[in-house]
């Protein structure tokens, strides 16, 4: 009986956690301003295209943006954002990552006409989340503060292992 109670409690806690977890905000590539930005749980992360770092591994592609951080003295630290080129959580091949990187950099260099060959493209959003991670308050001013400091980003992610 105690075992079933423990399993029920664990199930309820995990279910509550899953229901409370929002659909994360998309990563935005703004070609006009030459920046990448997103937010997660009220914290903003961004950088200019020239300071964007990335790492490729079997999970997919990891982008390094400069984000707000209460844990660090400066108030900012690299934030890692994973992209899965195939939708698989693991075992993505180098070819999968190469195609994703080619698409990203083609968009950064030439715009959406280099990536979207049809009239338009709209992927339907997942309906498995109860709510979306909302855009933080004072977004524009906080974004500008990050972009003023993001020149430090390449030095940080080359000196530290992430």
Summarize the structure in words.
This protein has one domain. It is 33% helix and 23% strand. Strand 5 and strand 6 form a beta hairpin. Strands 1, 2, 3, 4, 5 and 6 form a six-stranded antiparallel beta sheet that branches. With 162 residues, it is an alpha+beta fold. The relative contact order is 0.18. The model has no long low-confidence stretch (mean pLDDT 85).
Summarize the entry for a quick read:
The protein is of the alpha+beta class and 162 residues long.
The chain-level structural class is alpha+beta
Shape: globular
Fraction of residues in β-strands:
15-25%
Write down the Rg: 19 Å
Number of helices: 4
State mean pLDDT (0 to 100 scale).
Answer: 85
Topology record:
Layout (H helix, E strand, L loop, with lengths): L1 H19 L7 E3 L4 E6 L2 E6 L4 E5 L2 E9 L7 E8 L10 H17 L28 H11 L3 H7 L3
Antiparallel strand pairs: 1-2, 2-3, 3-5, 4-5, 5-6
Characteristics of this structure?
6 strands; 162 residues; 6-stranded antiparallel beta sheet; globular; alpha+beta
